[in-house]
Design goal:
mainly alpha; two-stranded antiparallel sheet; 2 strands
Length: 309
C-alpha cells in the first residue's frame, strides 16, 4: 500500500528541514573560505602598496641626499679648492638621472606625483645652473667672489625651491602610506568581524543540524522498534494460522483433536486455544430431522425447541 500524498509531502518537508541546517552551514563554511581568500588577497595587495609607498619615500630621500651631497661638495670645492670635493660632486651629478628615473618609475600610477617630479626636474636644473655659475666664478675670480655671490642668498633660494618640492613629494607619499595603512586595518577588522559572525552562524547551524539529526535518529529507532514489534506479532499470528491450517489429528468417532503435547481435546477447546474464535451450540436441519423424537422428549410438554441457525 503506497503512502498517502499528504504523508509523502510531510516526510519530504521534514527531510528538507533536516538537511537545511547542514546545507546552510556548508554554505557559510564556503563563505568563510571565500572571505579568508579575499582577505589574504587584500592583505597581500595592501602589503605590496605599502612597500611601494615606502620605496617611493626612500627613493625621494636618496634623491634628496644626493642633491645635498652635490651642493655640499660643490661649495667645498669653490670655497676651499678641494679637488676631492669636485670629484665627489661630479659622481653625484652622474648619479642624479638614475635616481630621478627611479622616482618616475615608482610613481607611474600617480599623476599628481608625476607632475611634482616634473616641477622638481625644472628646479634641479636651476640648481645645477647656479652651481655651474659658481664654478665659473671660482675659476675666473676665486673663492672671495664666490662668497660674495653666495651672500646674496640666491643659491639658498634656488636650492630651497628644489628641496621644498622634494619635501612635498615625500609628504604626499607619507599621507598615501598612512591612508593605505588605515584602509588595510579597516578591511582587516571588517573581514575579522565577518569571519567571526560567519563562524558562529556555521557552528550554530551545525549544532542545529546535529540536534535535528539526533531527533530524526531517535524517531527512526522508535519506528524500528514498533516495526519489529509488529513483525513479531505478525509472525506469532502467522504461526497460529499455520497451526490451524496444518494437518490436525482428529478422532474419527468422537471428533476430539490431539494437540502439540499429545493430549486429546475437544474441537471447541482446541480451536479456542489456537485462535480468537468461539462457539455457540445449535443444531443443523439434518440432525433436527434425524433426532426429532429425542428433541421432542427433551423439549417437554411446553414444546420449546432448541435454538437453531
Amino acid at each position: 500500500m503506497s503512502p498517502a500524498p499528504e504523508q509523502t509531502a510531510q516526510r519530504e518537508n521534514l527531510d528538507f528541514l533536516r538537511w537545511l541546517p547542514v546545507v546552510g552551514s556548508l554554505a557559510l563554511m564556503v563563505m568563510v573560505a571565500v572571505i579568508s581568500a579575499r582577505t589574504m588577497s587584500e592583505l597581500k595587495n595592501a602589503i605590496y602598496w605599502r612597500q611601494h609607498s615606502t620605496q617611493e619615500i626612500l627613493a625621494a630621500q636618496a634623491y634628496q641626499d644626493n642633491l645635498m651631497n652635490i651642493q655640499n661638495s660643490m661649495r667645498d670645492f669653490v670655497t676651499m679648492g678641494d679637488p676631492t670635493a669636485l670629484a665627489l660632486c661630479q659622481r653625484c651629478i652622474k648619479l642624479e638621472p638614475q635616481l630621478f628615473d627611479q622616482l618616475l618609475r615608482l610613481t607611474h600610477d600617480n599623476p599628481p606625483q608625476q607632475q611634482r617630479l616634473q616641477t622638481l626636474s625644472v628646479a634641479v636644473k636651476d640648481v645645477f645652473g647656479y652651481d655651474a655659475r659658481l664654478i665659473d666664478i671660482y675659476q675666473q675670480r676665486g673663492a672671495e667672489a664666490v662668497l660674495r655671490t653666495e651672500q646674496t642668498g640666491e643659491g639658498r633660494i634656488i636650492t630651497g625651491g628644489a628641496l621644498e618640492v622634494l619635501q612635498t613629494f615625500s609628504t604626499e607619499e607619507q599621507k598615501l602610506l598612512d591612508a593605505r595603512d588605515a584602509d588595510e586595518q579597516a578591511d582587516y577588522r571588517n573581514a575579522e568581524r565577518r569571519l567571526v559572525v560567519a563562524s558562529v552562524l556555521a557552528a550554530g547551524l551545525l549544532v542545529l543540524a546535529n540536534f535535528m539529526a539526533s531527533r530524526e535518529m531517535a524517531r527512526r529507532r522508535r519506528v524500528e522498534i514498533e516495526r519489529e514489534k509488529l513483525i513479531a506479532e505478525l509472525k506469532l499470528t502467522l504461526a497460529q494460522v499455520k497451526t490451524l491450517s496444518g494437518l490436525i489429528p482428529i478422532c474419527a468417532w468422537c471428533k476430539s483433536v490431539r494437540n502439540d503435547q499429545g493430549y486429546w481435546q475437544t474441537v471447541e477447546h482446541y480451536v479456542h486455544s489456537h485462535s480468537d474464535a468461539s462457539f455457540s451450540h445449535s443444531i443443523c436441519p439434518t440432525c433436527r430431522e434425524k433426532f426429532k423424537d429425542e428433541i421432542a422428549k427433551a423439549c417437554g410438554p411446553e414444546g420449546k425447541s432448541p435454538a437453531h441457525n
